[in-house]
């Protein structure tokens, strides 16, 4: 599961608003140890006041799913992690997260994200693969 999650290019972050409404968005992320890092980047967004950040402030426990689909269903897999989010406001850990993201995504080497970095501390793992028991 760790290898698959670490190699995944995109994950889907599920958070919950203070009102209880679920919210799922795709994110680019990087895995280091028992933490994931992602950052608010330059891709077009309707606002800089992102719902996902407000949700994580209200309820820092969320889940992230990465998966792989092919028409050959024997190759399907998914990994889900329960996480606790912390928004990093600059500093060494934030810079380290950005360095890790830039090492994984060439787009971040060309244009480093300016938005906040979020650490997702992994609380639990689950997963499934069609070709494995």
The gyration radius over C-alpha positions equals 15 Å
SS element count, helices = 4
Strand content: 35-45%
Q: How far apart, in Å, are the first and last alpha carbons? A: 13 Å
Q: What pattern of helices and strands is seen along the backbone?
A: HEEEEHEEHHE
The residue ranges in which pLDDT falls below 50 over 5 or more consecutive positions are none
Helix-strand category: alpha+beta
Number of strands: 7
* Quaternary state of the chains: single chain
Widest sheet: strand ordering:
2-1-5-6-7-4-3
The shape is globular
**Mean pLDDT, all residues:** 93
Structure description:
The protein is of the alpha+beta class. 24% of the residues lie in helices and 40% in strands. The protein is built from 4 helices and 7 strands. It has helices at residues 2-7, 51-58, 92-104, 106-110; strands spanning 11-16, 22-27, 30-32, 35-39, 61-68, 77-88, 117-129. A 7-stranded antiparallel sheet has the order 2-1-5-6-7-4-3. The longest helix has 13 residues, at 92-104. The model has no long low-confidence stretch (mean pLDDT 93).
Feature tags:
7-stranded antiparallel β-sheet; alpha+beta; globular; single chain
How is the topology of this model organized?
Blueprint: H1 2-7, E1 11-16, E2 22-27, E3 30-32, E4 35-39, H2 51-58, E5 61-68, E6 77-88, H3 92-104, H4 106-110, E7 117-129
Antiparallel strand pairs: 1-2, 1-5, 3-4, 4-7, 5-6, 6-7
